[in-house]
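Input record (one chain):
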Amino acid sequence: MDTTTKANRKYSKQIPVYIYDNADAASTHVAKQIVDLIRKKSERGECPVLGLATGSTPLPVYRELIKLYRNNKISFQNVITFNLDEYYPIEPSTRQSCAAYMYDNLFNHIDIKEKNIHIPSGNLNRDEIAEYCRNYENKIVDHGGIDLQLLGIGRTGHIGFNEPGSVMNSNMRAVKLDKLTREDAADDFMGEENVPRQGITMGVSTILGADKIILMAWGKHKANIVAQLVEDNISKHVPATFLQEHSNAEVILDKSAACKLT
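The corresponding structure, as predicted from the sequence alone:
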C-alpha cells in the first residue's frame, strides 16, 4: 500500500481511500481481503457471501483469485456469490451478458458449486421482474447478507446499474440505462444500437446492506467521477456518493484514477 488519502469534506462521513501504483498491485490487495474473509468464515464453519461485479475493473482481482486457487491457496467450495446486475433483455448465453462474463472470467476456473452462484436473470418476462427481484433480495437475506461487496464505478457515478436519480432506499429493480453507460458498452456489443436499453440491478439499499464494500477504479478516465465520489456531497445525481453513509466502505485506486483528488 503506497498511500492512504482522506480528503477534507464538509460532511462527517469519510471513505478511506487507498492508492496503489497500478491496478495489479491494488487488485492483489483486494484479492487478499477476499481470501482472508473466506478462510475466517470457513474456519467457523460458515459460508462466505460475496457480492460480485462485472466490467473491466474487477478483472485483475478475478485473475488473482484464479491464480491463488490454482496454487492451492484457497478453495471456493463453500463460497456463495450474488452478482450486482444484468442487462435486460439478454440471454445468459449471450457473450456480452454479465452471466457469460462471470463464467468466462471466474467461475469456470475455480471450484465454486453451481448451486451457490446467483446472477440476475436477463431473460424474464416483464411481468415477472418485480417478484423475481424480491425473491433475489430474499435469497441474500436467507444467506445472512453479503459479507463483502465488490463495486466498480461508471462514468455516470453509477454503482451496479443504479444510474443518476437513484435514491438511497432503492431496492432491486429494472432500470433504464444512461446513454453514457450504453456508449461505454458499445464496443462489447459492436455498436451502441445493440446495447440493451435496460438492466436489472441490486438497489442502492441492497448494496449498502453489505457488511463491507470495496469500490475499485483504474485509469485517468475515472478520475473525475472518483473525485466526486470521495470529495463531493452526497447526491442522487452521483449514486456512488451514497457509499459515504456506509460505516465499512473503502475506495481502492491506481494513481491515474486518483489524480484529481485534492
